[in-house]
């Protein structure tokens, strides 16, 4: 079993001007931790511009990502809560308080990471619990309690 996140993968109460700024900041966590290249961060934004706000997968939760061929170095995620929510243009799930940036080095591992995250959010109160956390250790504990097959 591998851990889903380290403390460096988590930023809390981040200020973002809009959805694009939020996606860039989420991607920059991935970049700074060696998961992706700058090209991948730019591709995360471009994906939303091209395909719309489908990355807002549940009320308050966005999962920005791009294709692995856009610069994934190794698989990982970033977790970022916002000090003020942002609108993506997804009527049923806006505004967004939590972004989980995804970088999957291959489709199989990407799917396993998404399944692990889906397991966490089976609890309807999880978004509220995570956004209420004031310490990265608290968030890491939530995410690292699920198993990710290698």
Automatic annotation (TrEMBL):
Transmembrane domains' residue ranges: none
GO CC annotation terms, alphabetical: cytoplasm
All copies of domain PTS EIIA type-2, residue ranges: 3-146
Alphabetically ordered keywords of this record: Cytoplasm, Kinase, Phosphoprotein, Phosphotransferase system, Sugar transport, Transferase, Transport
Any GO MF annotation of the entry: kinase activity
Localization terms from the record: Cytoplasm
UniProt cross-references to CDD domains, sorted A to Z: PTS_IIA_fru (cd00211)
Superkingdom classification of source: Bacteria
GO biological process, alphabetically ordered: phosphoenolpyruvate-dependent sugar phosphotransferase system
Primary location recorded for the protein, binned into one broad class: cytoplasm
Key word Kinase present: yes
Keyword Transport: yes
Function: The phosphoenolpyruvate-dependent sugar phosphotransferase system (sugar PTS), a major carbohydrate active transport system, catalyzes the phosphorylation of incoming sugar substrates concomitantly with their translocation across the cell membrane. The enzyme II UlaABC PTS system is involved in ascorbate transport.
Name of the protein: Ascorbate-specific PTS system EIIA component
Source species of the chain: Enterocloster citroniae
